From TrEMBL:
InterPro entries: BACK, BTB/POZ_dom, MATH/TRAF_dom, SKP1/BTB/POZ_sf, TRAF-like. This is BTB domain-containing protein. Residues 277-405 form the MATH domain. It comes from Emiliania huxleyi (strain CCMP1516). It comes from the Eukaryota. Keywords: Kelch repeat, Repeat. The lineage of its organism: Eukaryota, Haptista, Haptophyta, Prymnesiophyceae, Isochrysidales. PANTHER family: KELCH PROTEIN, RING FINGER DOMAIN AND KELCH REPEAT-CONTAINING PROTEIN DDB_G0271372. It holds the Pfam family BACK.
Amino acid sequence: MPKRAHDAVDDDQVAAVELSDGEPQPERQIALWRASTFCDATVVVEGRSFAAHRLVLASSDFMSTCLQSSMTEQTGRVELHDISASSFELVLEYLYTGKARVAVRSLVELLEAAAMLQVQPLVAELAKVLGAGLAGDNCLDLWATAARLGLPAVKPLKAACLKFACESFADVVSTTSFLSLSCPQLECLIRGRRVHASEETVFAAVIKWARAAQPSPGELSAILQHIHFRDMRPSFVSSEVLTEPLVAEHMQLVAKRLLSDQPQRRIHLEATGRVASLAYTWKVPSFSVSGDSEGRVYSPIFRSGGDEWQLKLSKGGEVEGYLGIFLICPNAVGDVTVKADFTLKLHNQTPRKSVQKWAEHEFKHTAKPHMGWINEDWGWQKFIELEKLSAGFLVDDTLTVEVSIERRNE
């Protein structure tokens, strides 16, 4: 298995890794090679000549083909291009000894050389080493390299790079490599819900990329197709999305994405009528044992702009097998009504898997037979199936609910 030889670079040391997963030749064969004895082939790279045995070189599928040409069979001489002498020297060391000491800064170059020469064990080991050293500043470049090589042995590296980029999205978007992504690469990165970031963060990253890459309208449209605008806060859509010049000619697409799950949703562009906005996060500890006899759990009352609000959870009480989430406005009493747009969001450990729903409602006091006047709640009886909460929504038996409210007097 590869072992890291040094953790840092100083004046007289270079960070390196030891490769050791190859199949070594017999010791006698290695000794003959080092002494340039009985070597029956010469490989010329960048003007340097490397003596070797054809039988060993044939371990490379590429070299095996070269050695079978009529000219090479007569002369035993092969000249290689598109590869450095230092990389070929390391490949040759690996073919003979099954080992090689490689500077970390040369790993990618060696991977490309091993891929060109079709030395599959070396390709696989290098892919493994590179995959273990992924960071925000190298994963996108390695992803592009693995995709370009297209070999089965680098598929795990390609998958690892994509997974790392999704999980460390905030780190990778700050790199120059992110701004250099092609349109298909960016589509692959943000499609689905793999990215560990909010849709607002994804949108900001796409705009940053578009300003640098200057994609065609068709390319930008293809990218915007993968953004879930309906999961954004209404205030963000109004202030950031709808005012972004790059989005102006794609407004029909944005509207379609906004309305795809919520045909009743309206985006208010004017500030008139908006009295106050509020964001409140409620953490519900010991969720599995919380609640009254009917499975109801109430948040503390929170206030904004003179209004009082409260959240209610219903653990199967409204609809069996489902968690219901509702918003209550306790100060909507008598003839007083409170109009509001609100978004309820159930947090997941993977941000893009969080569940978010939007509604608008006019809260008021409601008369119920034998119950008098009660505060009306509004929300979803079937917000999510209870059995799905274990898939990242419950963390240490704590549930996190977020509400964003925009109160109106229109």
